[in-house]
Design goal:
Glutaredoxin, homodimer
Chain lengths: ~210, ~210
């Protein structure tokens, strides 16, 4: 995407996975936070499974004791953010097709790609729309004003497979190991729970005492 | 410890490890947060290594890419909390002796145990006092007004070894799998970054929309 060149006003880099509850919560506030500080958001669909593979990390849900806490925390964090939330079933799901649709759109119209991302995350985490199911994903595409057949062709197209792979590689090279992950002027913030620190940073830069 | 019996005003349960940077940061604000809401704090020294063993979790620092981010995040989180912080060397350290001193004190004087905990965390994370070194731990005990010889005898005493083990077992039974970990009227909060949610909960209970 082409950036408006304003010094010190680079877009917020926002990395998300379509199957990540905290990415969904963040997707509901990131644009408002950016707007409050005169920023735009550059959205990046990534595959957490790919990033975990390369680091030896595992999803939260693989640790039973952590899973119980995390489930409670998802609902609570959504409620604190004023965002509707339900835990989908199945969860987690493969998000490779949704991510390819995102990158297909992103190549020509980043705003539309972001709108699709928000709609898909909201569909999965509020209406149990299973994005890993081709028919449900096509219907969601149609509901958001896309050509569903073209979307399906896109997720099977080598070009967008390669684009997603390159996006994952680029995220990994940028140090991304989880989602949501944000980068503001080179400063990384990991997690929906870093909203407050990121906003303070956008407002006034580094906190006093941080070198 | 004996609790003052006020309905709905149970103490905040606060679980920490002497080698946990985020536990240290939380130890600097937990008493003020509790006081603002008419609560007391019940401190629990635990051994993260023990809790990790039982869950299959690993410390942050075992994942190189996460470690780099986490180090940055520790400094930033401390600065945002207005807390002085330096990353000690060696880090992490064994904290079994410090934890036994804590439980030795806690048995007779919980406030003194909490004061010792704050001093020990601050010593390790601001002045590089190596709590795993018997001589440095004894000096720290003396500096905080304790009988250093009695403290050393306590950490070698079977009674306080057993007490720490029981405290770890109790923490595990309560669902604690990391530190800092807080429980407010049965609601668990994990991490220094849940301060805001915990304060809102103390103020008004569950957020709107949370069942």
């Amino acid at each position: 995407m082409e950036d408006i060149k304003l010094p010190g006003k680079a877009p917020i880099q926002f990395y998300f996975d379509f199957s990540s509850p905290y990415s969904y919560i963040a997707s509901e506030w990131i644009e408002a936070v950016a707007a409050r500080h005169g920023r735009r958001v550059q959205w990046h669909a990534v595959l957490l499974g790919f990033l975990f593979q390369s680091t030896g990390l595992k999803p939260l849900v693989e640790y039973p004791i952590k899973r119980d806490y995390a489930t409670r925390d998802m609902f609570r964090s959504a409620a604190f953010a004023g965002v509707p939330f339900s835990l989908p079933d199945p969860f987690p799901i493969g998000t490779v097709n949704a991510a390819r649709v995102f990158w297909w759109l992103e190549g020509t119209d980043p705003l539309r790609a972001a709108a699709f991302a928000r709609a898909a995350l909201r569909g999965y985490f509020t209406r149990n729309v299973n994005l890993s199911d081709p028919n449900q994903l096509k219907r969601l595409c149609a509901d958001t004003g896309l050509d569903a057949e073209a979307a399906e062709a896109a997720w099977g197209d080598q070009q967008w497979k390669a684009k997603l792979k390159a996006a994952n590689d680029a995220a990994q090279a940028a140090g991304v190991f989880g989602a949501p992950y944000f980068i503001v002027d080179g400063e990384p913030f990991w997690g929906n729970d870093r909203q407050q620190q990121m906003e303070a940073w956008l407002q006034s830069g580094p906190p006093k005492g941080l070198s």
